[in-house]
């Protein structure tokens, strides 16, 4: 597990406009690269992403799950949701290992009270840099609807006693490739 921080990543004054408009893409890219290289013990963006996805082959789809529990298509509130800058940094890394934009799916297919809607202010900042990336949610509107199935669910194995699912996941992602 790694942690990155920069005092220069945002210039928002906590009053003017949407906070996401005041995040530096360049600083987020540097933070993401630094974190990925530290996590994998590599010295380049491409090597780091190759270490994370060693079995990737051209044509495979890569999904980026983001959290938009507070979002709607045209939202204009300040309630925190995923920001476009980290999404762009992940896409930059994926492209470094040859993932085509059309094979990258950004999604939030949730269920219940939230339909995984993709706000235009997020989608537009991603597609300005990566127009071929696809956005998917439960319903159409601001993204392509994939739907939600009550019968096709992701199941998680219960971790061993004394080991939380978060710790188990962190241990998996923090392993350095051999």
How would you briefly describe this protein structure?
The chain has 178 residues and is of the alpha/beta class. 31% of the residues lie in helices and 8% in strands. It is built from 5 helices and 4 strands; from the N terminus they run H-H-E-H-E-H-E-E-H.
Helix fraction? 25-40%
Which secondary-structure class do the elements indicate?
Answer: alpha/beta
The low-pLDDT segments are: 163-178
What is the tally of beta strands? 4
**What is the rounded Rg?**
17 Å
Proportion of beta-strand residues: 5-15%
Describe this structure in words.
With 178 residues, the protein is α/β, with parallel strands linked by helices. It has five helices and four strands. The protein has a four-stranded parallel beta sheet with strand order 1-2-3-4, covered by helices on one side. Helix 3 (84-96) packs parallel to helix 4 (120-127). It is globular. Residues 163-178 have low confidence and may be disordered.
Give the SSE layout.
Elements: H1 25-40, H2 45-52, E1 62-65, H3 84-96, E2 104-107, H4 120-127, E3 134-137, E4 144-145, H5 165-174
Parallel strand pairs: 1-2, 2-3, 3-4
Descriptors:
globular; 178 residues; 31% helix; 5 helices; alpha/beta; four-stranded parallel sheet
